[in-house]
Write a structure and sequence with these properties.
The protein is α+β, with helices and mostly antiparallel strands. Helix content is about 40%, strand content about 15%. The protein is elongated and about 85 Å long.
Length: about 290
Amino acid sequence: MELSREAKRVLLGLREMGGRAELSEFCQRWGMDQSAAMRGMLALKEAGLAEILEESYLKLSLTQEGRRYLKLGLPERRALKAADGVPPTELASRAWLETREAEVALGWLKRKGLVRLEEGVLRLTEEGKKFINLPLPEEEALQRVDGTVVRKLDEVLELLRRRGLVEAREEKRRTLLLKEAAWGMRVEPPEEEISELTPELLSTGRWREVRFRRYDVLAEVRPLYPAKLHPQQRVIEEVREILVGMGFREIPSRIVETEFWNFDALFQAQDHPAREVHDSLSISKPS
C-alpha cells in the first residue's frame, strides 16, 4: 500500500504518541500544518488505518465592551451601589453611567427584584442589600469566561452573549486515532521536503537536489474578515442591546416586508421623507 508523504508522517507520529492524539497537540509536537496533517489523516482513514473523532464546542472570548465592563464594573453593579435613596433621574450621574447604561441597569435591577421605587426614590430590597457585598452571577461569569471552552451556553452566558459582552465561536476538536492494522505496517520515514526557496538554496545550487513541497490550492484555511462593521450597523447593535437589556425579546422577521406593516402599521406618514431610508419595491403585475 502506497501512502502519501503526509500520511506517513501522521502514521509514524501517532505511533510515537501511543496511537491517539488531538490534532492541535499532534501538529505542535511534530511541527506540521493542520491542513497537511488532516490530508494525511484522511488518506489513512480511506486506507482503513485510522479514525477521526470530532467533537463540537464553543470557545468564549470577551468583546471590547465586555473587557471595558470587566475593568470598570457592570452598569448594574455601579447602579446598585448608588441606587439607594436616589431618584431614577439622578441615577446616571450618581453611578457615573451614560444615560442609556443607567436605563438598562435600572431595568435589570427591577426585574431581578433588587430595587423598588418608593415615594419617587429608589430603595434596595432585601435581596438587593444581600448583593451589595456579593458578586452577581454575570460578574462571576465575566471573570472566568475569556478563553474558556463549553459545550453549551448556560442562562448567564447566553444573556452576556445577547448583550454583546461575550462572543461564542463554534469550533471542533479533532482526535486522531490509529487502528490496529496501522501498527503492523512497515513504513519508511518520508523524504525531507523544502517549503521555501531561499537565497542560500539558489546560490549553492542545492535547489537541484532537494524535493519541494507541493501546494494544495484547495486546502482548507482559516478565513479572514478584514472589513469593518458599518456605522449604521453599530448603531443598530447598540439600540438592540438597550432593548434586550430592558427585557424586550427579539422576533424573527423577513428581509422583504410589506409596506403596510413596515410603514402604515408604525404610523409613518405616506409620501413622507422618512420612508426614503427604505428601498420600496412595487410589483409590476399584481395578482
